Amino acid sequence: MSKGHGWLQRAALKALADSDALTVLEIAWHCFEVEPDATGFIAITDAQRAAVARALTGLQKQGLAFAVHRTSRGGYLWSRRDVALGKIGRAVEVFGDTDGYGAALVRAHAQIA
Q: What does the alpha-carbon distance between residue 60 and residue 72 come to, in Å, rounded to a whole number?
C-alpha cells in the first residue's frame, strides 16, 4: 500500500493550489513543466495526459480534487475542494434545491473534509 501521494499527485495538487480551475491538459503542462516550442505549441503525450487523469481520479477519491465543470470539448475543469464546494453552494443559491440533490452534494463533500 502507498505511503502517500506520488510526485504526479503532489504536482497536480500544487497546480490546483495556484488556480481556481484547470483542465487535465493545463495540469499536465504544470506537472511535466512543458515549455511551448517556437510556434507556441505545447506538446503533451497521450501517456502524460492519461497519467494526470489517473492522478486526478485518485485525488478525487480522497476528496482533494473535484471535476467541477464539463468543458465544451468534452473534458472537465478540475478544482481543489474549497473552490468546488463554493461552486456547489452558489449553484444551490442560484437554482434552488427543489430535489435535495445540491444540499446532499454539499453534505457529502463536507463529510470528506
A: 22
